[in-house]
């Protein structure tokens, strides 16, 4: 049986440790964007915004769609006057969890 000398074992151990020391640090993976939880939260925010707009009598004739992505609400549609648009934007901004509101609303011309 062949024996390995102690100095050779120490050298091998030192070399192995040096090699492992050269490896880059392991970084945890970044959390995924668009998680299921965020999707559910976005749906809840959209529902609350729709309900707030529907409950306001001054916005009854307004045609609006609500979409939410990462807590950013987009309002799209038409209104009969600029004050309706301002009111809808204000209601949307007041919903809990809304980060910001994107206005894609326009005043009907006919």
Short description:
The protein is of the alpha+beta class and 110 residues long. It has helices at residues 6-21, 36-55, 82-93; strands at 63-69, 72-79, 100-107.
Write the layout of secondary structure elements.
Layout: H1 6-21, H2 36-55, E1 63-69, E2 72-79, H3 82-93, E3 100-107
What does this structure look like?
This protein is of the alpha+beta class and 110 residues long. It has a domain at 34-107: 2-Layer Sandwich (Histidine-containing Protein, Chain: A), CATH 3.30.1340.30. Helices cover 44% and strands 21% of the residues. The protein is built from 3 helices and 3 strands. A 3-stranded mixed sheet has the order 1-2-3. Strand 2, helix 3 (82-93) and strand 3 form a beta-alpha-beta unit. It is rod-shaped and about 95 Å long. The mean pLDDT is 84.
Strand order of the largest sheet: 1-2-3
Assigned CATH class of the domain at 34-107: Alpha Beta
CATH arch. level architecture of the domain at 34-107: 2-Layer Sandwich
Distance between the termini: 99 Å
Query: Could you say which structural class the secondary elements and strand pairing correspond to?
Result: alpha+beta
Pick out the low-confidence regions.
none
DSSP strand count: 3
* Quaternary structure classification: single chain
- Alpha plus pi helix count: 3
Largest sheet: 3 strands, mixed
Name the overall outline: rod-shaped
The share of residues in helices is: 40-55%
Q: H/E series, N to C?
A: HHEEHE
Please, what is the average pLDDT? 84
Strand residues, percent: 15-25%
